[in-house]
Design brief:
This protein has 400 residues and is of the alpha/beta class. The protein has two domains: 174 residues, Rossmann fold; 206 residues, Rossmann fold (3-Layer(aba) Sandwich), CATH 3.40.50.10300. 32% of the residues lie in helices and 23% in strands. The protein has 13 helices and 21 strands. The strands form six sheets. An eight-stranded mixed sheet has the order 12-11-8-13-16-17-19-20, with helices on both faces. Strands 2-1-3-4-5 form a five-stranded parallel sheet, with helices on both faces. Strands 6-7 form a two-stranded antiparallel ribbon. α3 crosses α5. The longest helix is centred in the C-terminal third of the chain and has 14 residues. The two termini are 23 Å apart. The structure holds cytidine-5'-monophosphate. Cytidine-5'-monophosphate binds next to α11 and β16.
Length: 400
């Protein structure tokens, strides 16, 4: 659940800070990235070196790094994070959070953060029960911060009671619960996605390609990831960045895409083939640039392998194949024919229009399944279309 999540860990001064290297270790073990920001007084209880080593990033305390001259920008840190955890949060830091003071890097970062924030208070039992602390804890919760309540046990003062920082395991558990993906048919499924165009070389500088941007495939990858699927992306040449944390194989030609898919598909449960694969490639690829002459130039094109059909016809019984079709006329008839010929579980027909299709942020689709279910969408963002597609396939029990 915390895989690839970016966690800002704010550490304030208090004896419980000695537990934070363990907290960092647990976050890292869950697959999260951790950036530590300490208040100056936290360093009386734990060292920057220890925190930097366990987090594998320089732990920060100052706005300005005297050694490197770099500026630790609290706004960037605040925007970077998916979650901020302030643990331990002593009474001083708690009251400054409430009043909006920002006399250290932790507090300014907190004020800049747009992500959800968790606070794990730690203080002696009488301090903890003090009305001002209790009011502050109520205030931060009213503002939407998440409280990871202090626990009962022996305290540094020798007294016993409520005030200990929640155990690192409990803090990790609180975040895990928050980020847990609700149950759905895609959760934990291994899904291969192809996306983007393919380029078929003519010579070292020229190629045959198509106008696919790869955006539809990328939105499908993001939606799958949010639904808890394990995604393997095979991406043709596209200028779009691939979503972070997604295992991606970059390819150029249809042949390379086929090879990557043949390696990955055997370990997947579902394949979603959204790539606009070039149907033909040049028979003779020139190793050097072909010089211009006064004559015309005829290229002989030969058929590329049909990746989807190849994999679909040889798949294991539990594996599902979803194809795409892009047509300009007789669209439904052609799409349904492909569904049958390639023995797919479902096909997504892209409607080519002014406001949808290739190189557009929007799309409108019709979905047909082998069980004769069908659905037609409006023109929606490709992000919406990706979510609609996944939900429909899940509702129709195509994944079972
Ligand atoms: O037959 P057509 O090219 O229209 O089929 C489109 C579907 O087949 C898409 O899902 C596309 O990714 C896939 N395809 C493929 N390999 C090809 C051609 C198309 O995987 N060579």
């Amino acid at each position: 659940m915390l895989k690839n999540k970016r966690i800002l860990l704010g550490i304030s001064g208090g004896i419980a800070a000695y537990k934070t290297p363990e907290l960092v270790r647990l976050f890292k073990k869950s697959g999260a990235e951790v950036q530590v920001v300490c208040t100056p007084s936290a360093l009386q209880f734990v060292t920057l070196k220890t925190l930097s080593v366990v987090s594998e990033r320089p732990a920060l305390v100052d706005f300005f790094d005297e050694e490197t001259g770099s500026w630790n920008h609290h706004v960037n840190l605040g925007l970077w994070a998916d979650a901020m955890v302030i643990a331990p949060c002593g009474s001083n830091t708690l009251s400054k959070i409430v009043s909006g003071q920002c006399d250290n890097l932790l507090l300014t970062t907190y004020l800049s953060a747009r992500c959800p924030v968790w606070v794990a208070p730690a203080m002696d039992l009488d301090m903890y029960m003090h009305p001002s602390v209790q009011e502050h804890l109520q205030t931060i919760q009213n503002r939407g911060l998440h409280l990871i309540d202090a626990e009962i046990g022996p305290l540094a003062s020798g007294l016993e009671g409520k005030g200990r920082m929640a155990e690192p395991e409990h803090i990790v558990q609180a975040l895990n619960q928050f980020f847990e993906v609700p149950n759905n048919g895609w959760k934990n499924k291994k899904v291969l996605v192809t996306a983007g165009p393919t380029f078929e070389a003519i010579d070292p500088v020229r190629f045959i390609g198509n106008r696919s941007s790869g955006l539809m495939g990328i939105e499908i990858v993001k939606a799958l990831s949010e639904k808890g699927a394990e995604v393997h992306l095979v991406m043709g040449p596209s200028s779009l960045p691939v979503p972070e944390g997604i295992e991606t194989v970059h390819v150029e030609s249809a042949q390379e895409m086929l090879e990557a898919c043949q390696t990955l598909f055997p370990k997947c449960d579902v394949g979603i083939f959204s790539a606009a694969v070039s149907d033909y490639r040049v028979e003779e690829v020139h190793l050097e640039k072909v010089k211009k002459t006064n004559e015309n130039w005829t290229l002989n094109l030969i058929k590329n392998p049909d990746i989807l059909k190849t994999l679909s016809l040889t798949r294991l019984p539990h594996q599902k194949c979803i194809g795409f079709a892009l047509e300009t006329h007789n669209s439904e008839e052609y799409a349904k024919r492909k569904l049958e010929e390639k023995q797919l579980d479902a096909i997504v027909l892209n409607e080519v229009g002014e406001n949808s299709g290739f190189q557009s942020k929007n799309n409108s689709v019709k979905i047909f399944t082998k069980n004769n279910q069908q659905f037609a969408s409006d023109v929606r963002s490709k992000c919406d279309i990706a979510n609609i597609l996944l939900e429909k396939l899940d509702d129709w029990k195509i994944l079972e």
